[in-house]
Design goal:
4 strands, mainly alpha, 381 residues, single chain, two-stranded antiparallel ribbon, two-stranded parallel ribbon
Length: 381
């Protein structure tokens, strides 16, 4: 924990790797509770990301040393998580109350100063905003099974309201995270060793197996929230199915099981069509609209924090100028066209949003198109 809580300073002093190499081989058998295991996974994750990326994309390592790799692997196996920093670590398990008023602070951090704190905390606020929606999903499922349209309508209204709250929380990203810091400093420490040209062979976990292993870096697709909403509303992602399915392996087991359980329930969309209730139809469509709005705003955030800084970084390189806007220039070139999880980011996000539109009900989809057209005109203005 002493090393994990000083990862940032040790990276900046270029001494994290040497500190880890001096660490004793840790024994995991004294970790008993779920909280202890999650804390251990978080600590070992930030140490691993710092160890791999301490010197940037041009001086990565091929082997994670035994004294870190072995306990990391054992803790990961017990939790059902991969041995890499995940959304479940950096966001869901990386906070504590600073005071009785509920103000939060991070347990561990990575380079990026206030912006990395803002990035993790705002993402946590998005998760917290979704709590009423997650609690309402069983009400929807039970209502469908019992043929109770009124209960389903009320629960869907609760879900759409929570989705709007998630979008509002996401908007805080612009206030608390600087785009050049996120792109130039933070992103590399969220990167993995799968579909990453900086580490094409992956990483050897010494003491586990001799062959390199590949794991994706952090991704919003590792949050179980949108997977739950998609399964509930019947959104199908054929083009991105393999990537999204793989991201479920980066979630806590209970989250993955919940998503699977939702997917096995009778069709909500079919129930709405069968009932032909105006209020129920409107509540379902509002959920689709709010989910599309959330995904559209996420595209806006990605454009601001990745696409635009990437274009500036390429321009600076072409000009041979590394001093102007130095923070952006430090960004890894391997991630310019992809997310840290390895996806082709903008095409992926737009396709996911468009597949959400596809579950709109006949008769209301025309109104959606009108609303989208109005939104586009307002954006241009």
């Amino acid at each position: 924990m002493d090393i994990a809580q000083h990862v940032t300073e040790l990276i900046y002093s270029h001494t994290l790797r040497s500190h880890i190499l001096k660490m004793p081989l840790l024994n995991t058998r004294f970790l008993e509770s779920h909280r202890e295991l999650r804390l251990a996974h978080l600590a070992l994750s930030v140490m691993t990301m710092g160890y791999v990326w301490q010197e940037g994309e041009n001086d990565t390592v091929k082997i994670l040393p035994r004294n870190l790799a072995v306990p990391y692997w054992k803790v990961s196996q017990r939790l059902g998580l991969p041995p890499i920093l995940t959304h479940a670590d950096a966001v869901l398990a990386n906070w504590k109350k600073r005071d009785p008023h509920g103000n939060l602070e991070l347990l561990v951090t990575l380079p990026g100063g206030d912006s990395v704190r803002g990035f993790f905390m705002v993402t946590l606020l998005v998760e917290l905003a979704a709590v009423p929606a997650i609690k309402s999903i069983p009400l929807v499922i039970n209502g469908v099974q019992c043929g109770d349209a009124e209960t389903v309508t009320r629960a869907l209204e609760e879900i759409s309201q929570a989705m709007e709250g998630m979008t509002d929380a996401l908007k805080l990203m612009h206030a608390y995270v600087k785009p050049d810091v996120f792109y130039g400093i933070i992103r590399i420490y969220l990167s993995g060793w799968k579909d990453n040209s900086s580490m094409p062979a992956g990483l050897v976990y010494e003491g586990i197996q001799a062959e390199p292993m590949e794991y994706s870096g952090g991704s919003a697709a590792q949050s179980s929230l949108l997977h739950c909403f998609d399964e509930l509303l019947g959104v199908k992602h054929e083009e991105n199915c393999a990537f999204l399915t793989r991201m479920r392996n980066y979630m806590p087991s209970s989250h993955k099981h919940l998503i699977q359980d939702i997917s096995l329930q009778p069709s909500l969309r079919g129930f709405v069509q069968q009932e032909a209730s105006e209020l129920l139809t409107a509540a379902f469509q509002l959920c689709v609209t709010k989910l599309m709005a959330l995904r559209s705003y996420h595209i806006n955030v990605v454009s601001c924090f990745i696409t635009i800084p990437a274009a500036r970084a390429r321009q600076l390189r072409r000009q041979g100028n590394s001093s102007q806007e130095e923070t952006v220039s430090r960004a890894p070139t391997a991630l310019e066209e992809t997310g840290t999880g390895g996806s082709g980011i903008m095409s992926f996000l737009k396709t996911v949003r468009d597949r959400t539109r596809d579950v709109s009900l006949p008769g209301v989809i025309d109104m959606l198109c009108i609303n989208d057209a109005t939104l586009s005109v307002q954006t241009l203005i």
